[in-house]
């Protein structure tokens, strides 16, 4: 027998119409690239998103077509989130920290029809445009007064505010299929080129429900939320959608992510909840510590993207009375998978023991199922001791990559995360290692394979292996181990200079260690885990 309930598709635009109707007067505050602070309300957001949806239609952007963005966290980016997805096209956020060759590859692979960019990124657009195989429309996200008078974008450059001004604010959000694509985000693959994860309307709305819950990111209409995590990195962990669902005030930091600017914004806008990677919080804690400041409104901070150290969790909680929510996720998971929220029995533990619990990545949100498996694929016990490959499945987990001709990454319907973890009897997952061959520096990926490939282009290098070494500021940095060709005397400086222009500046290894040989396994593969054990603390001890 069928249930007798309405069938309403789960659509991204419904988050915006809800926010407009129920929280129309709630504020959205943005620090802009133009240097000032901009304020408006959800009512204004909705009206301008409708204008923008009309503008996209006038530019000829049809259903399912990709709308690229290269932008900081700000209200115009938020308008694009809803105008693009809501009207049936696909919001495609790109990471401006990538090398221009990679950006050009991604623009073309995604077949973006139009690219919206913040003024900061004009030089990047100028370098990428000549490399593109398919033509695009470029729109600078600013007003007429700030439009660049000179530029090298080969075709006409449009002005965002002109588009908004010239468009009607009446637009009926279409009743889309909830399984249609809403947004796209590329992640650095462990092998080969970056891969696109294509979120659906349904997966986005379900993720929003689950991530907003009290034991998840714990968001409400009484919150003032500062997403420091970029809107180009997995949709700022879903916070733009969550804020609409719950009616929270939103505070966008724009390009100013240093400790001082963040602190001013947190205090000035009475932020109650913030979210970002450990590296950003390190900068904030240093700034606040130096001036012996305190947080007058901030009550919680979500720390994820890389492991939150016990020292950081302790400092936030002991010194500043800011609760830490340690979270784990992935681009392929929209991204939130687990959050470390206490169960009732943890509350009674001594403080130090509670901090120890918080070093774990936490328990799964409803909607995510996880397991750990051994080399034979057999499920391992949740005893807090056995460690295995972490696999997940759920409503907002990718089943394949965008435009991928390759086989599905799934293993018997489960997505292999590339993380190695233990799970305790309470269901708290703890990452102990990573089987995927990538380096996460300040929350962003560096491909060790790309680094090795560049090093091997050097005529005096016989073999190069790049590993992630722990780093006090960036969490991890690339360390390159090199076997020289016989008779070669190439030194670190020359080899490091060889990287200039070949990879993004911040991808360059911090150091090179010359070795006689590297350990190989039975099949001739380099045993990177052995090298990580030997050299993993290089930057901590150097
Ligand atoms: P991304 O797709 O860029 O969001 O990166 C996802 C990966 O970042 C995960 O598979 C982990 O390797 C790592 N990661 C994310 N959150 C955490 C965390 N809380 N602790 C340790 N590693 C994390």
UniProtKB/TrEMBL annotation:
<keyword id="KW-0276">Fatty acid metabolism</keyword>
<keyword id="KW-0436">Ligase</keyword>
<feature type="domain" description="AMP-dependent synthetase/ligase">
    <location>
        <begin position="19"/>
        <end position="402"/>
    </location>
</feature>
<dbReference type="GO" id="GO:0016874">
    <property type="term" value="F:ligase activity"/>
</dbReference>
<dbReference type="Pfam" id="PF13193">
    <property type="entry name" value="AMP-binding_C"/>
</dbReference>
<dbReference type="InterPro" id="IPR025110">
    <property type="entry name" value="AMP-bd_C"/>
</dbReference>
<dbReference type="GO" id="GO:0006631">
    <property type="term" value="P:fatty acid metabolic process"/>
</dbReference>
<feature type="domain" description="AMP-binding enzyme C-terminal">
    <location>
        <begin position="451"/>
        <end position="525"/>
    </location>
</feature>
<comment type="similarity">
    <text>Belongs to the ATP-dependent AMP-binding enzyme family.</text>
</comment>
<dbReference type="InterPro" id="IPR020845">
    <property type="entry name" value="AMP-binding_CS"/>
</dbReference>
<keyword id="KW-0443">Lipid metabolism</keyword>
<dbReference type="InterPro" id="IPR045851">
    <property type="entry name" value="AMP-bd_C_sf"/>
</dbReference>
<dbReference type="Pfam" id="PF00501">
    <property type="entry name" value="AMP-binding"/>
</dbReference>
<dbReference type="InterPro" id="IPR042099">
    <property type="entry name" value="ANL_N_sf"/>
</dbReference>
<dbReference type="InterPro" id="IPR000873">
    <property type="entry name" value="AMP-dep_synth/lig_dom"/>
</dbReference>
<protein>
    <submittedName>
        <fullName>3-methylmercaptopropionyl-CoA ligase</fullName>
        <ecNumber>6.2.1.44</ecNumber>
    </submittedName>
</protein>
